[in-house]
Amino acid sequence: MSLRAPRENDRLSHRAPRENAWTRWARRRRSAVTSGLRAPRAGHLSARRPARAFVAGPALLAALATGAAALTFANLPPRDSAPAASPLPAAGPGLTAPNPTPPLPATVQNPPNVPYDGTFTFVRVRFNTTGRGFARGFGGGRGPGWAHDYPSADENFIRILDEISLIDVNMTGTNVIDADDPELLRYPLAYVSEPGEWTPTQAEVDNLSDYLLKGGFLILDDFRSDFEWSRVEEIFAQIVPGHEFRVLDIEEPIFDSFFEIESLDLPPPTFQQFWPVFLGMHENNDPDGRLMIIANFNNDIGDYWEYSDRGYVPIELSNEAYKFGVNYVIYAMNR
After folding, report:
1. What are 200-214's pLDDT values in tens digits?
2. Is residue 237 part of a domain?
3. Are the CB atoms for 280 and 233 separated by under 8 Å?
4. Model confidence pLDDT, tens digit, residues 128-169
């Protein structure tokens, strides 16, 4: 069977859960590339030419380009305003010393949000959940799906974004905002974890519809399987009727908005029986129009962010995951 690139009108369909457009394409692609799959070259970062308002800090980017520094949370210089870290307890028998990653809040139902001040604040969406997805994930995946990898992934990511771009990032914290809260419309980008667990209320549908059609941008992450994809299609058919997802290729502007991403073959950190694919939903179904949603389907970029300072994932792969996230933000702020 010959390998072909996805056609523009390729889309996912829950009508044939065992075989659909992306599964046929991904199955052929996987068989063709798996034997030759390699990790991205260490230190290989390509800066977006400074034609837009946001450019990388020259000192950091020069170090990254020469391999003298890696795009990881652990290797960034300390911030002067950061509070002093508490002493680490000694490792017990059979255990390693804990990593100085900010601890989970006492309850994810009461996150310590920061007030709106006009700077870029990373927002995670809290939604009504069924609990039918992969509810118990790796490490920070325990708990409701919307909270997987929270808060470490969010905090690690904003520090990378702050160091490598000139965006005025709110470094005092990140926010969790309910899907039905009009406050969401203050923020240009929002992150959704485990959308396959989502059972939206009418208030959530109405608010997310306003958010997307008024210029908001959503990142869907940490979901997999035909069952979860069918749920996501059904959800967004309610939120933005008449719009469809399509498979994205490397020529999509979002993959060249800051870093020139060279390959979409980012292997998932977990559940590697699923082959990842990037899908998007454009305003008015116009492939040349504004991308409203990007879906990291069969992948979990948030896991790479969360564990980039713990040694659980290769630096080269967490670098790539950060590049995707940075590109998403730059695209959302410029469209």
Report:
1. 999 999 999 999 999
2. yes
3. no
4. 986 544 333 334 445 788 998 999 999 999 999 999 999 999
> What CATH number is given to the structural domain containing 259?
3.40.50.12140
Q: Is the dihedral of CA 92, 96, 100, 106 positive or negative?
A: negative
In degrees and rounded to multiples of 5, residue 294 shows phi and psi of: -120, 135
Tokens for 98, please give them. 């804990």
For the chain, the first-to-last Cα distance in angstroms comes to 39
Determine the structural domain holding residue 193 and report its residue range: 49-71+103-334
Using CA atoms, how far residue 16 sits from 11, 225, 230, in Å, is 12, 13, 10
In a domain, 277, yes or no: yes
Whether residue 313 is predicted with pLDDT greater than 70 in this model: the reply is yes
Residue 269, Cβ density class (10 Å: 0-12 exposed, 13-18 middle, ≥19 buried): buried
In a domain? residue 65? yes
Q: For the whole model, what pTM was predicted?
A: 0.69
Report, as an integer, the average pLDDT of 53-76: 44
Q: Angle, to 10 degrees, between the axis of helix 152-164 and the axis of helix 58-65?
A: 100
pLDDT score of 108: 57
How many CB atoms sit inside 10 A of residue 27's CB? 13
Can you read off the two tokens belonging to residue 35?
């034997």
Side by side, the strands of the sheet bearing 245-247 are: 175-178, 123-126, 189-193, 217-223, 291-297, 277-282, 245-247
